[in-house]
């Protein structure tokens, strides 16, 4: 039973907020954790784990409040059950929390060490349960339907400390529940990528499409990089990417009927890239320059429970373009399918963009436009800073269009894509996020069908 790793998990059974029982639970052994009960006022549990252990029958070695669970692969799942009479909105816990919960936590648990934690709740019935968890440092996370059916599930990388779990009802009726707290699934490993979908890049890119299927993204699989690559990924790994020479490449989800996210996993978080809506609508796109090495690409869902068929287009983002020079005095003529241009020049950001142009745009720009495009037929206008070693910004104006962007391109570079752009003349301004800074830039201008 490993008493030296006993978790003191206090369990609050709140009935109408006026009566509660505090139960001590042991980790280990599975099932039957609930010891005797003691009545008390709600809210006393915080920070007082295990006091008056003598009253908590049925537990072993649980008297020492300081005992906590050990993290690691030998973590034994914890079980809880209870009832909740919702009295307040879960939104009081923080952003992203829905439904109704009780005043007090449904149960609490303490982690001795950081651990990827998997919390599941069920009522064995038809209620649309929700769950929220709060913890050290103002941590909170909530879920509605991340588990099976309408049940919530939270998988999170939790640091050591005490956590309060609130089980609730998306509606407002009383509920009973059973819950488990276990070690979460392993993070993605690059070497587990889908070798049947290997993308090999050797300096140049031949356009290709790859199809796949995100099955049941409610089977949440964290990317394993906390606060990074957020989303809900399926149990199946994404394509392998094998880079043999530095390559500029674009990965774009060109077909999916849900709000995709995409995570390009490199060996560490700094080298990895995440995108939500860089593609068309809510679809994802990552345009980047990859150094030789192994990568994995994960296509997931921003929301839990979504999924289905996806199509990924892999291409050279600059394919078919013609090199040119940025010229504020003359407009570049663009038509759908003419390939577009990569224009070179330099800027120094002096004037606040929003003040100068009169609409929202980030950073600092020059008094004169950086360049201009004359579109001769309707299409999708693509404007992207594809070269620059500083934090660029971008503004587009003309013909009833006003748009700004900071980091829509690669890294801190900028990108604006607008579909259904009418023929006419448009000015663009490349700026610098920092006042008075700048440097050499390359700007892609293109109109797509
Ligand atoms: Ca739910
Ligand atoms: Ca998205
Ligand atoms: Ca930027």
Write structural notes for this entry.
The structure is a single chain. Helices cover 1% and strands 47% of the residues. A hairpin with a 5-residue loop joins strand 9 and strand 10. It is mostly beta strands and 449 residues long. The chain has one helix and 34 strands. The longest helix has 5 residues, at 353-357. The protein has one helix at 353-357, and strands spanning 9-15, 19-25, 37-40, 78-84, 88-89, 100-101, 107-111, 115-122, 129-134, 140-143, 153-158, 161-169, 175-183, 194-202, 208-214, 239-245, 247-255, 260-265, 273-275, 285-290, 293-301, 308-315, 322-325, 331-334, 341-348, 351-352, 364-365, 371-375, 379-387, 392-398, 401-405, 415-421, 424-432, 438-448. It has three domains: 3-183, Jelly Rolls, CATH 2.60.120; 190-315, Sandwich (Jelly Rolls); 322-448, Jelly Rolls (Sandwich), CATH 2.60.120. The strands form nine sheets. The chain has a five-stranded mixed sheet with strand order 14-16-21-18-19, with no helix packed on it. One calcium ion binds at residues 128-130, 144-145, 150, 152, 170.
């Amino acid at each position: 039973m490993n008493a030296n790793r006993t978790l003191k998990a206090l369990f609050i059974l709140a009935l109408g907020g006026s009566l509660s029982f505090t139960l001590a639970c042991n980790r280990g052994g599975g099932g039957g954790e609930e010891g005797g009960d003691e009545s008390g006022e709600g809210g006393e549990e915080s920070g007082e784990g295990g006091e008056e252990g003598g009253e908590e029958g049925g537990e072993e070695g649980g008297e020492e409040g300081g005992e906590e669970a050990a993290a690691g692969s030998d973590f034994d799942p914890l079980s809880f059950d209870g009832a909740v009479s919702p009295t307040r909105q879960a939104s009081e816990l923080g952003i992203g929390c829905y439904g109704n919960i009780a005043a007090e936590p449904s149960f609490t648990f303490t982690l001795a060490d950081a651990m990827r934690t998997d919390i599941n709740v069920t009522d064995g019935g038809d209620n649309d349960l929700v769950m929220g968890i709060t913890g050290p440092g103002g941590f909170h996370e909530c879920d509605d339907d991340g588990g099976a059916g309408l049940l919530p599930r939270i998988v999170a990388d939790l640091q050591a400390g005490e956590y309060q779990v609130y089980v609730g009802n998306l509606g407002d009726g009383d509920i009973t529940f059973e819950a488990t707290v276990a070690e979460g699934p392993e993070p993605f490993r690059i070497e587990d990528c889908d070798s049947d979908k290997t993308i090999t890049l050797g300096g140049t890119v031949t356009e290709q499409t790859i199809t796949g299927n995100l099955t049941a993204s409610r089977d949440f699989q964290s990317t394993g990089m906390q606060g990074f690559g957020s989303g809900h990924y399926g149990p199946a790994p994404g394509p392998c990417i094998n880079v043999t020479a530095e390559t500029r490449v674009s990965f774009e989800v060109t077909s999916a009927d849900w709000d995709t996210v995409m995570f390009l996993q490199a060996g560490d978080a700094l080298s990895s890239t995440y995108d939500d809506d860089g593609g068309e609508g809510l679809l994802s796109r990552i345009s980047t320059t990859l150094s030789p090495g192994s990568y994995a690409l994960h296509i997931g869902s921003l929301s839990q429970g979504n999924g289905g068929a996806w199509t990924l287009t892999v291409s050279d983002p600059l394919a078919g373009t013609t090199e040119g020079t940025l010229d504020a005095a003359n407009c570049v003529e663009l038509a759908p399918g003419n390939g577009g241009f990569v224009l070179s020049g330099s800027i120094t950001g002096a004037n606040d963009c929003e003040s100068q142009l009169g609409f929202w745009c980030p950073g600092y720009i020059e008094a004169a436009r950086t360049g201009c495009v004359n579109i001769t037929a309707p299409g999708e206008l693509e404007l992207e800073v594809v070269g620059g070693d500083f934090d660029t910004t971008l503004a587009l104006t003309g013909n009833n269009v006003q748009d700004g962007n900071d980091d829509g391109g690669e890294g801190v570079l900028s990108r604006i894509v607008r579909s259904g752009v009418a023929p006419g003349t448009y000015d663009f301004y490349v700026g610098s996020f920092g006042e008075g800074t700048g440097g050499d830039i390359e700007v892609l201008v293109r109109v797509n069908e």
